[in-house]
Amino acid sequence: MLISLNWLKELVDISGLTTNELAEIITKTGIEVDGVYEPEDLPKNVVVGNVLSCEQHPNADKLSLCQVDVGEETLQIVCGAPNIRAGQKVAVAVPGAVLPGGFKIKKTKLRGEESSGMVCSLQELGVKEEDVPEAFVDGIFVFPEETEVGADAVQLLNLDDSIIELDVTPNRADALSMAGVAYETAAALDRSYELETPSYEEVKEKATDHVSVKIEDAEANPYYGAFVIKDVEVKESPLWLKNRLMAAGTRPINNVVDITNYVLLEYGQPLHAFDLDRFGSDKVVTRFAEEGEEIRTLDDKVRTLSSNHLVITNGEKAHAIAGVMGGADSEVQEDTTTILLEAAYFSPRVVREGAKDHELRSEASVRFEKGLDVNRVAQAGERACELFENYAGATILKGVAEEDHLDREEKEVRMETEQLNNRLGTDMSTDEVKDILRRLQFGYEEKKDVFDVQVPTRRFDITIFEDMLEEVARIYGYDRLPYTLPNSSQQAGGLTQAQHLKREVKTYLEGAGLSETITYSLTDKTAAEQMISPELKGEANGAIRLAMPMSEDHSHLRLSMLPELLRTHRYNTARQQQNLAYYELGKVFISEDEAHQEQPKEVVRAAGAVSGNWVSHLWQQEKKEVDFYVVKGIVEGLAERMGLTFTYVKGEVNGMHPGRTAIVHCEGETVGFMGQVHPRYQKDWDLKETYVFDLNMDLLLELYEKEETFAKIPKYPSVSRDIALVVEEEVSAGDIEATIREAGAPLIKQVKVFDVYQGEHMESGKKSLAFNLLYLDPERTLKDKEVEEAHKSILEAVASKHGASLRE
Amino acid sequence: MKERLQELETEALGKVEKSGTIDELKQVRVEYLGKKGPITEVLRGMGKLSKEERPVIGQLANDVREKISDAIDEKQTKLEDEALEEQLKEESIDVTLPGRPVQVGGPHLLTSIIEEIEDLFLGMGFEIKEGPEVETDYYNFEALNLPKGHPARDMQDTFYITEELLMRTHTSPVQARTMGQKNGTEPVKMICPGKVYRRDTDDATHSHQFTQIEGLLVDENVRMSDLKGVLQTFAQKMFGAEREIRLRPSFFPFTEPSVEMDISCKMCGGEGCSVCKGTGWIEILGAGMVHPNVLEMAGYDSEKYSGFAFGMGPERIAMLKHGIDDIRHFYTNDVRFLSQYHKA
After folding, report:
1. Most exposed among A216, A420, A471, A497, judged by the fewest C-beta atoms under 10 Å?
2. Which parts of the sequence belong to the Aminoacyl-transfer RNA synthetases class-II family profile domain (chain B) (predicted)?
């Protein structure tokens, strides 16, 4: 809401404060100030001139040659505006004037004729085009006839006004009016304000002689008042009224529309003027629309209504969507003389539905939606009548035709001084509390420090003790509250084991050379359903889709983090970043029901993607490209860090290279997978050879055990033996290793592959695998014979199980 | 014999002198001091000498032997030193050549900020709680005093999945869930960091996914001054001891009173500059006293229990601390962005 200080200062004494100081006080006590606009770059030396004569320019079709009296002298001015006429009062920038943007006005010759100055449009004086009245948009501005020649145009047009923009929170709808802001400012500054009661002359003829009002649904429409205003002369509004509308960002139209808009700004109460002669009956009936009922609204659109929409009818035909927009058929026009003025209270819910369904949110609908002061509805109508009498030459009929179900009772809230102090941590006296209530202009009864506060209806947001607590605290001043620390029950705090472990995992991965990323949980359908880890069974029910996504790119909840991580790779690869190593710790979302109606299972995962060179140390001729085993090393290290043993089995995962993917197991459970991204996928995504891993952190955290009993450091020497085995090339090293460990137990302590060979001197289809074995008995020194025996049974086992023979 | 020994001495010392390598020196040792060497031979022939001469010659022979041995040792040390000197010279390298690179990763800036905030509150005895990112309408809104049709629901554009399921728009549902587990009797002292989602178009200041950290303390006799004290402690640890805080009225449906907390601007020290838009203050977080409806819905007696809650955006804090101009940087994951914040 834009607050004109020239307007505000006529309501409340704000003298002695700069605009910024005032903004600061308003912010600290109640309503956030979003911006302060001081008049800057104001036009200088622009005065009111009287156009004495206006003739065609002898040498130019589109120019006029005018003689303009500016008070002290008469100037000849060449003017290009199409709407300039003799007898008009206009804004003249005299020679030496400066217009916004530093544009200087000098004596000059235009097409051979002398021109001493410029007749200005409002835009040229710095008014925003959307606020300029329609009649003056394409030409100069014309002052009312009675305007004094030679007067300062800047002042007359209120261009020297300062504006404060308020960001009104939903609970403070009372501040969506000048009156509300005036009450607020008065309380903040401890000055006085009271909304004036309107007054006008009523004729004997009654409004009820002309119209009757009937409400069909009192909950949707608790109050409807119809004023009848006769002899209306539709014309331009007075300058002051136009100025105030423009300062508030509202374009002046004509006096009837302007007056209703002005009262909306002043009282916060929306009003609507119907042309009574075009209304089609003497009955106002408010009801819910029929399904499919139609109305042509002011914007000349035919709108189809539903039974959720409240309409104002003449007994048959809808003439307005309540609180949202009037109908075109009863619109006030140039020739209108009799007005039916609506001042009503519609339920917030009903107006919200109407505004939402027809996408017509307006200054009016917003106020209905947020709530109105029940005691100001009819009063706002009276205020409009007062203005119609003064500025439209109208006759106001006596009284108002109405139906009234409004509860106008003031709410009572009880509070105690001690209770306030206990909640705030303050030491206020009852007298201080009384003083705050006086500033707020809230009535109360007080007995022994217990207050029964009568909350004015304009503050309909206040209903419970805590609301009053806020009122008292903000006027008391939050900056005066002491700083204390809670003396609440002491709690140790600290990370849980799972939280601690997650941090450890991050630290490990970063130490291993991976950088953390955070990617989007919402992705496109294809990406959301790719590379799903085998233990998740996510394929079965598919990715969950948002009801109304902003775009298809972010429409589904991911089942795997890898596609978004790879998107990151793609992004960086396209920017000449060659060697990439990322991880992310995040969640995937597995729907456990096909219809996606239940809350999904959220699984925490640690995923990573690596490509390019792992080591690039060229001057010492060392270079290592990322391959399967680089990533496997990282995964193995993670297992070690968590004290877990992983086993790896070749497997297939959608989106992965079928020959280079391992499913990772731990203690009999599948905990994730790792391997190379499918080459087809790599090509589609312009990726280099990329290796990934994706582990189920929830499962790993379950398998993790913190406590370890101390294992003694061996005192006796171990015995080392190397063996080279020849096997078929399909036989995996992991299987042989498992057999060695089984057959060599309990003496075998370590099995390490140290050579894999295939090629010359080997039978084709065969390979050689060389292992280093370590035997140890923690209790004594091993004898050669024992080692020989264990070694022999190992060789027998690998021979029978894998057809392995010792390499010659 | 005496002459013979003196002759041997001169001869041997001469050869020691001439030896250029350790091997040559070894030769000299064997030649003169070995069991078959000439000195031993001289000593063997001592039997022919008189009783008086014997000790004299014996003494002389030992002296000669010692002299030669010392000379060899001395020469050996000298030769070894020279050899080492030579070796060191040969082993000299260019220490300015680059080392073998070790891959170093690092945390995402948001994680660093979140962990820093977590650690501050852990130190004040808060626990960290987590909750689902896909929430029910009940926990995301209704349990937080935002019934269906509440106008303030418009403040948070929501990604709905079904009528009852949605992407959480804040981390507050974790608070509602945690309170709900306490049967209305135990105090709560927690913070909840996490990802949240809003139906926004991504631009420099909006992201459809971002992070939040919220905090909650519920107990008997919690005062608004406690909120102020805790927030000041946080702000000064996070932003510097010289920072001031101010609270100003605001509105959140789940707190009453509601406030927003500003800290004094670091750039201008409160004078007013472009960073703080001339106000001298920078908005950091929203907070307030827990609304009695929220307490009651979670099973607490709001006459007996009170509490405060606060919430902040790590993105905003990161952007302020590091002068980052576009929120999308956090989710684009450009390596050139990420690596700027890897130092400890």
Report:
1. A497
2. 109-320
